[in-house]
Amino acid sequence: MTDSPFSAFRDAVHAGDVDAAVALFAPDAVFHSPVVHRPYVGREALHAILTAVVSVFEDFTYTDSVGGGDTCVLVFTARVGDRVLQGVDILRAVDGVLTELTVMVRPYSAATALRERMAALLT
């Protein structure tokens, strides 16, 4: 994963650098939320979401990665208020440019807390 868009994304997120993370994505990148059915399309939407995530997640850290080819799964832990959560970022790339980010989190109580905090920031 060294010198890949996946490692660059991981490093930008760990640094809290939303601009650098979003710059790695294609203009028409797709984001799949863990709590919203409809996908979000485009860097502008992705920027708003990642900006909110940086303020909502506490003690965020990537703990592992799995992948090969054009897909990488970054495993993370974080806290939302008093809820500890586990999650994954599933990243897809084409020709070294990120095109898709899918986020999944557990447990349900943490996902619910995440949904509530994100809704307050994004509406």
From TrEMBL:
Gene3D superfamilies: 3.10.450.50
Top-rank taxon: Bacteria
Pfam families hit by this protein: SnoaL_2
Residue ranges of every copy of the SnoaL-like domain listed in the record: 8-100
InterPro entries given in the database record: NTF2-like_dom_sf, SnoaL-like
Protein name, UniProt field: Membrane protein
Source species: Pseudonocardia hydrocarbonoxydans
